[in-house]
Amino acid sequence: TEEQLEKEVNPFNIKVQEEGQNQGEVGHKRKDGSTFPTWMTVTVMMSDVGTPIALVASAQDITERKKAEEAIAKRAAELATVAKVSTVVATLQDPDQIIQTVADLAKENFDLYHAHIYTLDAAEETLALAAGAGEVGAQMVSESWQIPLDAEQSLVAQAARSREGIIVNDVRATSGFMPNPLLPNTASELAVPLVVGDEILGVLDVQSDEVNHFTDEDVSIQTTLASQVAVALQNARSYQQAQQQAEHESMINIISQRIQSTTSIEDALQVTIRELGRALGAKQTSVQLGVAPKDQS
After folding, report:
1. Cα dist. 110→78, 122, 208, 209, 287 in Å?
2. Which one is predicted more confidently, 229 or 176?
3. What is the spatial distance between Cα 180 and Cα 141, in angstroms, rounded to a whole number?
4. Beta-strand runs (E) in the chain
5. How far apart are CA 213 and CA 170, in angstroms?
6. Is 206 helix (H, G, I), strand (E, B) or coil?
7. What is the DSSP letter of 187?
8. Going by C-beta distance under 8 Å and a sequence separation of 6 or more, which residues neighbour residue 237?
9. pLDDT digit string, tens, across residues 261-271
């Protein structure tokens, strides 16, 4: 092409003329018109009197090498993204904020069509959509999307049950596929579980609008991300539970002190009713007293 001549071939030939040799990457064209990269080496052969008499040139097809280099660069970039997302969520203490941040950053930084996270309920029976990227994700969360853990056709449920990453690279060709009207362009999907130790917390589900988009390398990358997110999520939940426990204990101590400061049973009951109502956020609180019947024997 004209662009290739200007950027690769002409500069390469000029250097050969100036220095008598050159080597570097130059694109070549096949008979069918397709192009491929080569590593070109050219040396000018000189006569005894110093005039050029021939060119010795060799060209090696480096297509596979370029693919390998691109794969390495892609993996390095994705690992950097995993580190970036992990660093961000490690600073968060709100579980809901963690999973929403992960969904948004995953979609943006991995150049995905969509990303969302399901969390498993305490009974380990249902996966509830907890966060999704963008406006579509927010709408799906507001509609309380859920998937039974035993749903056989669901990729998300399969990943949770197997505790392994699962790829479907052509969802439309999958038996039982049910298109999501909010995500009409989904072509391939990858789901990986959020696991800490023996506990399954949920599933990270990512989607592409390209068929055959995901590879085993993507499973590895997303599994690494999911593992780190799961740890951050568990830590945030533990922190939240500890905070709630501390607040409850503080509330009980305050109520106990106020009851102890009363001088009559009536005052103690009034304080108990008032403080419990405040603590529980109840509009109305009452205490019912009863007298045990005397033993008739």
Report:
1. 7, 31, 10, 13, 58
2. 229
3. 14
4. 21-29, 35-46, 52-61, 114-120, 126-132, 146-148, 166-168, 188-196, 199-208
5. 9
6. strand
7. -
8. 95
9. 888 877 777 87
pLDDT reading at 297 higher than 60 = no
Supply the angle between the helices 216-260 and 265-280 in degrees, to the nearest 10: 160
Query: Does an H or E element contain 256, and which?
Result: helix 216-260
Three-class SS of residue 24? Answer: strand
Q: Which residues 6+ apart lie within 8 Å of 273 measured at CB?
A: 285, 286, 287
Q: How many CB atoms lie within 10 A of CB 191?
A: 26
pLDDT above 80 for 117 = yes
Tokens standing for 112? 């995905």
Range 220-228 average pLDDT: 91
Alpha helical stretches, state H, 44-150: 63-90, 95-109, 134-142
Interatomic CA distance for residues 231 and 79, integer angstroms = 17
How far is Cα 161 from Cα 74, in angstroms, rounded to an integer? 30
* Burial profile 126-160: b = 16 or more Cβ within 10 angstroms, e = fewer: bbebbbbbeeebeebbeeebebebebeebbbbbbb
pLDDT category of residue 27 using cuts at 50, 70 and 90: confident
Token representation of residue 79: 């690992």
> At residue 205, does pLDDT exceed 90?
yes
What type of residue is 74?
K
What pLDDT does 293 receive? 66
Domains and CATH numbers, the chain: 2-61 (3.30.450.20), 66-240 (3.30.450.40), 246-280 (no CATH)
Distances (CA, A) of 232 to 101, 193, 227, 291: 12, 14, 9, 52
Instruction: Output the six-digit token pair for 268.
Output: 């103690």
| Amino acid (one-letter) located at 101 | T
